Amino acid sequence: MATTDTDLIIAGGGLAGATLALALSRAVPDLRVTVVESFPLSPDAVPDDYQPSYDSRSTALAWGSRLIFEELGLWQRLSEHATPIQHIHVSDRGRFGATRLDAESHGQPALGYVADNRWMGLCLMRELLDTGVQWQAPGEVVDMTPIAGGVDVAIKQNSEVRSLTAQCLVVADGGRSGLRETLGFQTRQQAYGQNALIANVSTSDSHRFTAYERFTDAGPMALLPHGSASLAGSQSALVWTLTDQDLEQVLSLSDPEKCRRLQDRFGWRLGRFTHIGQCNHYPLTLTTVDEPVRAGVALVGNAAHALHPVAGQGFNLALRGLMTLVEQFRVAHASGQSIGDLSVLRRYQELHRQDWQQTVQFSDSLIRVFGDSSVPVLAARDAGLVGLDLLPGAKRWFARKAMGTGGRRAVIHSPGSASREQMEHE
After folding, report:
1. What domain range includes position 27?
2. What's 101's domain CATH number?
3. In terms of DSSP bridges, do strands 423-425 and 134-136 run parallel, antiparallel, or are they unpaired?
4. Which residues, in sequence order, are CB contacts of 298 under 8 Å at separation 6+?
5. Cα–Cα distance, 233 to 217 (Å, whole number)
6. Domain membership flag for residue 266
7. Fewest C-beta in 10 Å: which of 94, 158, 244, 401?
8. Domain presence at residue 216
9. How many domains is the chain built from?
10. Contacts of 389 (CB under 8 A, 6+ apart)
11. Do 46 and 130 touch, CB atoms closer than 8 A?
12. pLDDT of the residue at 390
């Protein structure tokens, strides 16, 4: 193999990029990894004195994601501020159909968890401080040129651009990846004609560790238990889909008026909405990249596929993909093959493709079926929700999707593992 400055460059040190770096430090500790992140890093940014903010953004973690974080040695710390989802209630507003899932009936303490993004980032950083992963921060990958045996990556720091060579570049800079466009990857985008409004809310009744998926004639909404790992409080994380016109109207309202509008759309299952925090919003688009790998380059996370957030599948899908990529890098490195070799990256793509196709289809079909208000579809939806609630086989299938255990999950091997590659089908 050609000599390079580093083995792997990860463009983006957010949740996806940092998780990939940590997983590689566990599975292939002698692999040289460099993370390029636009935000400066502080060695004091550790979770020891973490104080949750009411307005903190959060991520839904499936049970399968907990298993991955356990393998990485991260879960014990992360779980200190991860609110468990013990029940899931799916309903169609104004209709009789509903489906309920309970962790206890599946022999688990939780179906999933809700964790603040900042807390997850701090936990990852705390672990990464004890690894050999190198950071270029603040910095930005602005271009890449293929070279013999790898890639030549242009990194901009303090208005200066310098070159760093590597076997492979992984693009993990999010759904609005400018680097993806610069490198010429072709995306397919399907606009839903809706926006996601994200906020934390308080209610008069406790959430009782229940996640609500509520489909309405104006679009789906989700309320996820939030705020405490042990006490069933009254704070929930809201994902509310709105048309452009409705979003403009909601944003113009006072906080009490927003609560009343939300009450009208969601109903009274959590009692009265008493407070809504800072509102963030963004347009909803299904974005996929059919060919997310090339020789020396791979797209991961939202840079490769961005889903509708109401089903809570996006980060969990990305996490499974990252572990699949780590395993392919481990196998290639152990055999003396360049990790940027096209055969290595195509093997990763083939293993991950079925998972992302099924997850995209599952999420997209939920939105489209529950967005159709024709009488035949309404009747079919009622029957479908009731069927899911009553038929054990259908309910197990739905639970596996919700828990993120319906696909293939790469097993992270420590150095010296006898097995070259194993895939666990859960």
Report:
1. 8-189+285-413
2. 3.50.50.60
3. unpaired
4. 168, 169, 170, 171, 292, 325, 345, 348, 349
5. 29
6. no
7. 158
8. no
9. 1
10. 98, 99, 100, 395
11. no
12. 44
